[in-house]
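Entry 14. Structure prediction run on the chain below.
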Amino acid sequence: MAAKLDHLVILVSSYDESLPWYGALLPLLGFEKTRDHVWVNGQGIGFDVRLAEEDARPYERFGAGLNHIGLEVETVEALEAVRAAMAEAGFPVPEIQPFGEDRACFFKDPDGLRVEVGWTAAP
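Output returned:
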């Protein structure tokens, strides 16, 4: 039996800061908003953005748990378009990094969770 990824629940410290960020990024990557805090793509994978408990520890990049989320686009031009659209929406955007012939951009959500949007060159 092979399982498939169904959804990710992202706990955020502020809906006011995080919902606009995910609301800008996820549609650029083919996700459709289905509820106030849920986006789903054509493969049935969902992002559910929920409010963290007030006394929860903040995200730590190298702490135990999730390090980053990786999403892949089909062309390097699509990667460049996602980066440009996030900049145009007013969010900080990092440079696109080369990994051999592959490329990736590691965006940070308002809590510091990295969301990688990458492109892999044909073998």
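The mean pLDDT is 93.
Filed with the rest of this week's runs.
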